[in-house]
Design a protein that fits this description.
single chain, alpha+beta, Alpha-Beta Plaits, 4-stranded antiparallel beta sheet, 3-stranded antiparallel beta sheet, 4 helices, 7 strands, SIMPL/DUF541, 26kDa_periplasmic_antigen
Length: about 240
């Protein structure tokens, strides 16, 4: 009998705890939240590029895929060999976007309908991505590549091999701007700035700029003029502060 009574008391205590726990959690949820202020600051730093990414393509068409491939390979081999003589390292040359595509012709009948398309030839495209670390050679490289058979591409992206110093400078400017903004806002509101709760950042690399898009004439008497300009690195910093009570 005593054992049964003890068991009932233990069960009642367990049920009481089970009901009290949600109430305690609810009480915690309803407790006053810490007052905060969220500010953001943007900083940027501009530096001259020291490297260019150049995209070139050799495109050849022929009646058969074999003929188109042979002509394309010969032209690209000459381009690669010439680039090596101009001190472009193999690590800075990469094949990209290689493709073999059929060329179709679709004739129209007398009644206005179309017959089934037929293959009339093949197009072989072989892309080449170059990292040019000496920007003074860029125009000459484009000129030589076109004369050797490059007939598509020409998109250039100016970049920096190691932009960390500029990014660090942009970060410092962004943080300083955010801190100053927080001070102004809290002073205007008549409250005091408390501890830092959270810091986050958004970093945007410079957008690729197609400074040169080659029409790829068969002959170019002068090296293509190139203007590198500057790259601007932008950082946005978000800081969450507590408001001192």
């Amino acid at each position: 009998m005593n054992h049964l009574k003890t068991t009932r008391l233990a069960l009642a205590a367990t049920l009481s705890c089970a009901f009290l726990l949600p109430l305690a959690a609810l009480a915690d949820d309803q407790s006053p939240r810490e007052a905060t202020i969220i500010v953001s600051g943007e900083g940027d730093a501009a530096i001259a590029p020291d490297m260019a990414i150049l995209n070139l393509s050799v495109v050849r068409e022929a009646e058969t895929a074999e003929e188109a491939l042979r002509a394309n390979s010969q032209a690209m081999s000459e381009v690669l060999a010439d680039l090596k003589t101009k001190s472009i390292a193999e690590r800075d040359m990469q094949t990209s976007n290689f493709s073999v595509d059929p060329l179709y012709r679709q004739d129209k009948t007398d009644d206005g309908s179309y017959v089934a398309p037929v293959i009339v030839g093949y197009r072989v495209s072989n892309g080449l991505t170059l990292r040019v670390r000496d920007l003074t050679k860029l125009g000459t490289l484009i000129d030589a590549a076109v004369k050797l058979g490059v007939n598509q591409g020409g998109g250039i992206t100016f970049t920096n091999d190691n932009p960390e110093a500029a990014i660090t400078e942009a970060r410092k400017k962004a943080v300083a701007t955010a801190i100053e903004k927080a001070k102004v806002l809290t002073e205007a509101a008549g409250v005091k700035l408390g501890r830092v709760i959270e810091i986050s950042e958004n970093f945007a690399r410079p957008m690729p700029q197609p400074m040169y898009r080659a029409a790829m004439a068969k002959e170019m008497s002068d090296a293509a003029p190139i203007a590198a300009g500057e790259n601007q690195y932008t950082v946005t910093v978000n800081i969450t502060y507590a408001i001192a009570q």
